[in-house]
Amino acid sequence: MGVASNEPHLLRAARGEVLSRPPVWMMRQAGRYMKAYRDLREKYPSFRERSEIPEVAIEVSLQPWRAFQPDGVILFSDIVTPLPGIGIEMDIAEGKGPIIHQPIRTIEQVNALRPLNPDESLPFIRTILQALRQEVGNQSTVLGFVGAPWTLAAYAVEGKGSKTYSVIKNMAFSDPTVLHLLLDKLSESIAIYIRHQIDCGAQVVQMFDSWAGQLSPQDYDTFALPYQQKVFAAVKQTHPDTPLILLVSGSAGVLERMGKSGADIVSVDWTVDMADARQRLGKTMKVQGNLDPGVLFGSQEFIRDRIYDTVKKAGNWGHILNLGHGVLPETPEENVAFFFETAKNLNLATV
Ligand code: CP3
């Protein structure tokens, strides 16, 4: 530990302090692999209930906190949660993910969208984030999150998750005007939403551009990067001190480009070796990641070796230990417990 600081460990790392161990949290740390979550899901079968009734969302967000004391506690919500507030109705189907019954395909539909007013359409967010901050105090860092313009546009246009992204790519490569207008409007509302989450208590915010890895690098430069930049620049203007993380799923081909987004921290997945990621991103970029979530199916020895390997390659500065993507629903809870225990007990001087 450095000089006495009241700030929690993850926030200190995100600000660039040198620490004796990296902070650790896990994407999707609240969710189906936990029995406590599955039990609560029986009582509240709809995802929107679980994420939009404040008491339930607070409880779910805190389940992993109580079980494992991660250095980060993330708001339990979804990237599509703000869409109804801008005029895109949605549901989240069990085992399928987001469903948009009237996908956005025309200029008239895009013109009818309205800017997000979070206190009006997402009143539960303030209650949840305030309660999380109150609950964890300085023992952990509260993370907010949003979907990025390209990824939210993919859901809005496709109407659901997709393997090929045919509808949105058809739009992008035949008549991109409508899509650019949609991306622009989404960027504006996402920036409003990040600012709101920070004002309500989020200390770090992660933007998920999950499906931007489906784009070729040149198309990433046209349809993903400029809008990531627009969102981050807008937030930095009013909230310069809040660290911002960017995640792209399948990041290997666009890693350097992610570094140009304006994010403070690039989330790296397991398609890249952490040592290579450090080299490709340069000395001043902070990183998060990057264990394969499947590692948690291995033995304790295997899990420990992979943690040590990652932290050695990442070094003692600017690293948040995490998986490269969300923890898988079938993961044994005791392996998650072992992951956190090992990470929290390690000392970079001795690994
Ligand atoms: O990390 C956390 O603990 C916070 C929770 C969180 C959820 N969704 C809860 C959720 C986060 C950060 C998200 C973000 C999200 N949602 C992303 C970006 C992250 C990524 O995976 O790349 C995306 C693409 C979505 C869209 C979405 N929502 C999908 C693909 C699914 C899963 C479908 C399925 O059933 O496998 C959802 C539903 C969802 N959101 C679940 C959870 C825990 C699973 C449903 C459930 O547990 O009832």
General description of the model:
The protein contains 17 helices and nine strands. β6 (244-248), α14 and β7 form a beta-alpha-beta unit. The longest helix has 25 residues, at 176-200. It has one domain (4-344): TIM Barrel (Alpha-Beta Barrel). 48% of the residues lie in helices and 12% in strands. It is α/β, with parallel strands linked by helices and 351 residues long. Bound molecules: coproporphyrinogen III (CP3). Coproporphyrinogen III binds next to β3.
Layout: helices, strands, pairs:
Layout: H1 9-15, H2 35-43, H3 47-52, H4 54-68, E1 72-74, H5 83-86, E2 91-93, E3 97-99, H6 107-111, H7 118-121, H8 123-136, E4 141-147, H9 149-158, H10 166-174, H11 176-200, E5 204-209, H12 217-223, H13 225-238, E6 244-248, H14 255-258, E7 265-268, H15 274-281, E8 286-291, H16 300-314, E9 319-323, H17 333-345
Parallel strand pairs: 1-4, 4-5, 5-6, 6-7, 7-8, 8-9
Antiparallel strand pairs: 2-3
The protein binds coproporphyrinogen III (CP3).
